[in-house]
UniProtKB/TrEMBL annotation:
<dbReference type="Pfam" id="PF01812">
    <property type="entry name" value="5-FTHF_cyc-lig"/>
</dbReference>
<keyword id="KW-0460">Magnesium</keyword>
<dbReference type="InterPro" id="IPR002698">
    <property type="entry name" value="FTHF_cligase"/>
</dbReference>
<keyword id="KW-0436">Ligase</keyword>
<dbReference type="GO" id="GO:0030272">
    <property type="term" value="F:5-formyltetrahydrofolate cyclo-ligase activity"/>
</dbReference>
<feature type="binding site">
    <location>
        <position position="55"/>
    </location>
    <ligand>
        <name>substrate</name>
    </ligand>
</feature>
<protein>
    <recommendedName>
        <fullName>5-formyltetrahydrofolate cyclo-ligase</fullName>
        <ecNumber>6.3.3.2</ecNumber>
    </recommendedName>
</protein>
<keyword id="KW-0547">Nucleotide-binding</keyword>
<dbReference type="InterPro" id="IPR037171">
    <property type="entry name" value="NagB/RpiA_transferase-like"/>
</dbReference>
<dbReference type="GO" id="GO:0035999">
    <property type="term" value="P:tetrahydrofolate interconversion"/>
</dbReference>
<feature type="binding site">
    <location>
        <begin position="4"/>
        <end position="8"/>
    </location>
    <ligand>
        <name>ATP</name>
    </ligand>
</feature>
<comment type="similarity">
    <text>Belongs to the 5-formyltetrahydrofolate cyclo-ligase family.</text>
</comment>
<dbReference type="GO" id="GO:0005524">
    <property type="term" value="F:ATP binding"/>
</dbReference>
<keyword id="KW-0479">Metal-binding</keyword>
<dbReference type="InterPro" id="IPR024185">
    <property type="entry name" value="FTHF_cligase-like_sf"/>
</dbReference>
<dbReference type="GO" id="GO:0009396">
    <property type="term" value="P:folic acid-containing compound biosynthetic process"/>
</dbReference>
<keyword id="KW-0067">ATP-binding</keyword>
Length: 192
């Protein structure tokens, strides 16, 4: 078993073992970190995700952004370009469907589509991270492909969201991995 696979198993188990109360508390604290960071709080168009498999649940942050008048988008698996994501507008009444992983996403409607380069921020889920911004995702490479332009200073700013238990001393990296410039946990707002 590869080291990255072992890390994924270990950290996914740790975050799934968090109690409902711990999950809810973590989600609420994230809002304060975002509200305290003007570049995040003032964003006009943000992409978030719906939590799966013990991920930090950004729904309270989505609700907060809606209350601020911010437009929220969710990732949708690209139907014609495997391994890539599209971003569709998400509102309380958006029609949803389950993708091939069983994760809810907006039903494909071209009127809701926003090119990713027009987003201000992409909040990314992750499995593990280290104190230098390296991250390990679920292994599909969806966010690495989505954030590839960021490596060259183009596109929306990626910001990771994670539980404290997802931090490791160091993450093994590959050439295609995109380190994050910013990450928020309940205990800390990291910027690199």
């Amino acid at each position: 078993m590869s080291e990255r696979h072992h890390i994924r198993q270990q950290i996914r188990l740790a975050r799934r073992q968090l109690t409902t109360a711990e999950q809810q508390a973590a989600s609420e604290v994230i809002i304060q970190h975002v509200a305290d960071a003007s570049h995040l709080a003032r964003a006009d168009k943000v992409a978030l995700y719906l939590a799966n498999d013990g991920e930090l649940d950004p729904q309270p942050l989505i609700d907060w952004y809606w209350s601020q008048g911010t437009r929220v988008y969710l990732p949708v698996l690209h139907h014609f370009s495997p391994g890539h994501l599209l971003f569709l507008r998400y509102d309380p009444d958006t029609a949803m469907t389950a993708n091939r992983f069983g994760i809810p996403e907006p039903r494909l409607d071209i009127r809701l589509l926003l090119p990713k380069q027009e987003l201000d921020i992409i909040y990314t889920p992750l499995v593990a991270f280290d104190s230098t911004g390296n991250r390990i995702g679920m292994g599909g490479g969806f966010y690495d492909r989505t954030l590839a332009a960021w490596r060259h200073g183009l596109g929306p700013r990626p910001v990771g969201l994670a539980h404290n238990c997802q931090q490791l001393p160091a993450i093994p990296t590959d050439s295609w991995d995109i380190p994050l410039p910013e990450l928020i946990t309940p205990d800390q707002h990291w910027r690199w």
